[in-house]
Amino acid sequence: MNLTQAKQLADQLLTNLNTPASSAFGRQAKLRVPIGVSNRHVHLSREDMDILFGQGTELTRLRAVKQPGQFAAKEMVTIKGPKGEIQKVRVLGPLRKETQIEISVGDNYVLGIQAPICMSGELANAESLEIIGPQGSVKKDRCAIVAWRHIHMSPDLALQYDIKDEQKVSVAVSGNRGGVLDNVIVRVSPAFVLEMHIDVEEANALGLANDALVTVMSN
């Protein structure tokens, strides 16, 4: 069993442990998903890494995140828009083919832009920003988005719950500030472990923190 498979198994065991025993009789338990709260961050291309931090430099791993192979780096940058700037924005690794900046709706007002709400990698209508690093700066067209809330899921789990890649589901949140989140996009890949990504604003509105469990409603 490799590391990815072990993490997927651990996620499913966590789901099962939090499922009422009565659900085992005649009806499949509802899928419960751990939350991952995403603060504003930057993904860099090799070209922009060289400009911002120096030719040939590499990201310095600070801590792993739940999705296999991804990590928070020690490196941070400043992002600057027409109206203002935000300092100490974390870079996430590994390096990507294209630079992408993920912010919150509130950050739009600070920066003076209108970044669209869309899935990661959908940069056709993304906003432009300047990125400032310790060794240089770069002005990037079509780089800034507000990430659409989404669930990462393995193919085996998707098959078990009859969920398709890019399907939209609704998610129920319990607690004093609980509610229902509609239009949650599911992304299915063998590289994923079970986790729902929402931004800080959504998490605060519903009283959610990392690893809190939410329930996928009937789809």
TrEMBL record:
InterPro entries: PTAC
Pathway per the UniProt entry: Polyol metabolism; 1,2-propanediol degradation
Cofactor(s), by name: Zn(2+)
GO CC field: bacterial microcompartment
BP GO annotations: 1,2-propanediol catabolic process
Catalytic reactions on record: propanoyl-CoA + phosphate = propanoyl phosphate + CoA
Signal peptide residues on this chain, from the entry's feature table: none
EC number(s) per entry: 2.3.1.222
Keyword line: Acyltransferase, Bacterial microcompartment, Metal-binding, Transferase, Zinc
GO MF annotation: an example: metal ion binding
Broad enzyme group: transferase
Subcellular location per the Swiss-Prot or TrEMBL entry: Bacterial microcompartment
Its biological purpose: Involved in 1,2-propanediol (1,2-PD) degradation by catalyzing the conversion of propanoyl-CoA to propanoyl-phosphate.
Sequence similarity: Belongs to the PduL family.
Stated name of the protein: Phosphate propanoyltransferase
